[in-house]
Amino acid sequence: MKSAVRDLQGRRSFFRRLGAAAAGLGAASVLSDADLEGAVQNVNRSSQPSQLKITDLRVAVVTGAPFTCPIIRVDTNQGISGYGEVRDGASKTYALMLKSRLVGENPCNVDRVFRKIKQFGHHARQAGGVCGVEMACWDLAGKAFGVPVYQMLGGRFRDRVRLYADTTEVEDGHAQGRRLKERMDRGLTFLKVDFGVNLLHEKPGTLNVPAGAPARGGDMVMHPFTGLAITDKGVAYLSDFVAAIREEIGMEVPLASDHFGHIDVNSCIRLARAMEKHQLAWMEDMVPWQLPHLLRQIKEATETPILTGEDIYLKEDFAKLVDMQAVDMIHPDLASAGGILETKKIGDYAQEHGVAMAMHFAGTPVSFMANVNCAAATENFIALEHHSLEVPWWEDLVTGMPKPLVKAGHATVPDAPGLGVELNPDTVHAHLLAGEGYFEPTPQWDDERSWDRLWS
Q: Is the dihedral of CA 338, 340, 344, 347 positive or negative?
């Protein structure tokens, strides 16, 4: 007991001396400048997260990135803005129609906001508005709390995100291989190539095209209904094409394939079997994802990995593919899948069932950084697509991170709050779509109302 009393008296004496020192010398003399700076360095003094409210939503449509991409800006009552992106090629209207449902919401309640608007998304580009808003809310939440998005998702599994680059086709396999080798010389460690039916449409005897069938598949007709089939000669031609590529790049680097054109299931199976000796990382979108039983039929007939997912909205349909064992890998596009959190949920569900996740992407650095944050926080992630290596001004669209954003085939995971970047107005202005303004007011979307509830 006496010892405890002595300890208590000692502590009291210490604090009395500390108080005297503060009074006599000033508090700044007790705490060093470094201590004072460290105590406040992570505090965003302009933000009170619990009181943050959305006040506006505006759009700037960038073109040539390499595709047309609407960037959205969500403004708040505390002077901070968050950025998101409507998926490449989609209409800005998908985002603007949500404005009246967002004003007044706290963007830090990301999941609440997402659940309020997710009924207005759909598969492929129609999900672009919902996903863009979700990205912007995460950007705002990160800025309000002073942390990167990946930290709010549970932290990161990696500090670099591996990239792969698509490479459109040329007629000669060796020339195609040299184009891919140039990608490797730039540091890429994962490659992707197109070698679809477009290579065959003028080669006699390589395609079976019934009367009335579109020679290239047809954009509006699902694969099983085009009547288009690849002959044995066509399969051999494409196999030789890939063999020439492998001669140029070697067997060590992963080589994935893009979409093949609208061909029937049996053609898919024969082509996938012919590719086994070339050790492809995956074959993509052999038939539409809405036909999982056909995807499973192809998957079970070959050792070449089968992958799909860039047009799927929300976790539920990914879960069906995984549960049916219809694919070897999934391939969500975050700007279609439901945004950052939904894509992480998709990846986590796939991991629980032994399925890896690659990520499709073809937009500006805004959506790119959303993908990088998500990829960093998702354990079963394999590689993220980068579609803009030939766009010299692409990285100049943003500031806030050391350049280059892409180095040695990887993207650095940011430490800055939110998505990790801010827009560069000069570069965005220089590449606006003709007739589009730079985040001009959108009062025409302020008051649109409807009875959105889905139950009675």
A: positive
**Total of domains in the chain:** 2
Integer Cα distance of 125 and 89 in angstroms? 7
* Same domain assignment for residues 107 and 183: no
- In which residue are the tokens 């086994």 written? 276
pLDDT tens-digit map of 116-160: 999 999 999 999 999 999 999 999 999 999 999 999 999 999 999
Helix (H) or strand (E) holding 5: helix 2-25
In this prediction the pTM is 0.88
Question: For residues 397 and 62, is the Cβ–Cβ distance under 8 A?
Answer: yes
| In contact, 367 and 392? CB cutoff 8 Å | no
Question: Can you tell me the distance from the alpha carbon of 351 to that of 349, in angstroms, rounded to the nearest whole number?
Answer: 5
State the Cα–Cα distance between residues 182 and 26, nearest whole angstrom. Answer: 64
State the burial class of residue 175 (Cβ atoms within 10 Å of its Cβ: 0-12, 13-18, 19+): middle
Q: Find out whether 400 and 418 touch, Cβ atoms under 8 Å.
A: no
Q: Which residues contact 395 (CB under 8 A, 6 or more apart)?
A: 365, 403, 404, 405, 406
Q: Are 121 and 176 found together in one domain?
A: no
Whether residue 92 is contained in a domain is answered as: yes
We report the CATH number of the domain holding residue 62 as 3.30.390.10
CATH number of the CATH domain containing 213? 3.20.20.120
Range of 129's domain? 49-148+438-445
How many Cα atoms are found within 13 Å in the side-chain-facing hemisphere of 190? 18
Q: How confident is the model over 64-123, as pLDDT tens digits?
A: 999 999 999 999 999 999 999 999 999 999 999 999 999 999 999 999 999 999 999 999
Whether 332 and 358 have beta carbons less than 8 Å apart is answered as no
